[in-house]
Structures are given as C-alpha cells and as structure tokens.
C-alpha cells in the first residue's frame, strides 16, 4: 500500500480540459477556432464548386480579414482560374448584407472565407497491363462571411501612423459611398441630433417687435 501511495503521489496532477478561449494561440489556429459572429455578420455559401478544396482554399486564404474593396481588387489580379468564382461569392454576400443590414460594400470586411469538402464523383481510370483505377473529381463548398467594419476601433488600435491614415481614408470612402447610395437616409442618427440641436423659430405673430 505504501508503494502504491508513493506512485500515485508521483503522478502529475490532472488538469481540467481547456475550452477554446483558454487554449493557446497555436492550438486555436490548428483547430480552426474563430470568434463568434458579429451582429451584422452575413453569410453566403456557394455549394459544389467543381474545383479541388485544397486549391480553392488557397484563393480563399488571400482575402481573409480584408476590406471588401481590397479583396475584390486582389482577386481581380490573381492569376487563378477560380478567382472570379470567389469574387462573385463575395459580391453576392455583400448584396445580401445590403439587403439585410443596409450596408454598402465599403463598410464591410471579410470575417471568414474557407472551403469545406463536398461529395466527389468517381470516374474510370484506364491503366496499363489491363488494369483500371478510380479518378476522384473533387468539389468543395465555398463559405463567405462579411461583417461591418468598426472603423473607430481600427483607428484606435493602429500600430503606426501610416496604418491609422489608411483606416481614416477608408472611413471617409465608406461614408461617401453610403451618402451616395442612401442619400438623406444615410445617417439618421446624425440627422436626428441636428434637428434636436437646432433652435425652434417662434411663429410669425409671436415674434418680438423691433
């Protein structure tokens, strides 16, 4: 009994399992951990893209966490055959965000962009010496999620003046695009605050005589 007690005491204490938020950064990256979606997040899924998921994921990796106009420009000059497919999915997701949350593309960033495997087709492969094999024609599901950019947080957390100026310019571009698309309904909160601050004029008959 004494020997058993000593062996048990020498064993390392068992630790409680870590959840996703307590895990180290490398573990979160290896398990594809992602924060919960934001309230303005909008998703779009392009199913059964006839391309290898591994190769398609290389294109999706180029635009993750990018501002939507920058992502579309990146895909426009990417020499990949399925770059227009990813760009079309991003545009479709931005249109859905405009319909659901009244957001223009200049106010959005790509929160998630990844590819999951889809069912593949089997075809006959003729080989030498009378043998045959199987060809797997793979496909994948392209998943895109966009969300509104918090420009104030981006400017506040900028690492250098150059990055701060970049986000200030993007905020100005987004504001101009919103005014161009929505007109006088672009910023209802600011309009309401202006109406409250404006002094009310007295009726014509009650104006003081001069």
TrEMBL record:
InterPro entries: Ribosomal_uL22, Ribosomal_uL22_bac/org-type, Ribosomal_uL22_sf. The keyword Membrane does not apply. GO terms for biological process: translation. This is 50S ribosomal protein L22, chloroplastic. Keywords: Ribonucleoprotein, Ribosomal protein. One of its GO terms (molecular function) is structural constituent of ribosome. Pfam families: Ribosomal_L22. It comes from the Eukaryota. Belongs to the universal ribosomal protein uL22 family. GO terms for cellular component: large ribosomal subunit. Residues 186-210 are annotated as: Disordered.
């Amino acid at each position: 009994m004494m020997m058993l007690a000593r062996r048990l005491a020498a064993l390392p204490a068992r630790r409680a399992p870590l959840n996703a938020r307590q895990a180290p950064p490398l573990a979160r990256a290896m398990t594809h951990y992602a924060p919960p979606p934001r309230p303005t997040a909008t998703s779009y899924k392009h199913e059964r893209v006839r391309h290898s998921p591994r190769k398609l994921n290389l294109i999706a990796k180029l635009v993750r966490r990018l501002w939507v106009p920058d992502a579309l420009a990146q895909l426009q000059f990417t020499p990949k055959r399925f770059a227009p497919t990813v760009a079309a999915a991003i545009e479709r997701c931005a249109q859905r965000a405009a319909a659901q949350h009244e957001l223009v593309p200049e106010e959005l960033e790509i929160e998630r962009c990844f590819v999951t495997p889809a069912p593949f087709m089997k075809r006959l492969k003729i080989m030498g010496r009378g043998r045959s094999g199987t060809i797997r024609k793979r496909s994948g599901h392209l998943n895109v999620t966009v969300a509104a950019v918090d420009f104030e947080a981006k400017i506040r957390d900028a690492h250098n003046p150059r990055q701060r100026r970049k986000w200030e310019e993007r905020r100005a571009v987004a504001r101009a695009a919103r005014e161009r698309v929505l007109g006088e309904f672009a910023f209802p909160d600011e309009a309401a605050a202006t109406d409250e601050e404006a002094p009310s004029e007295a009726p014509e008959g009650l104006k003081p005589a001069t």
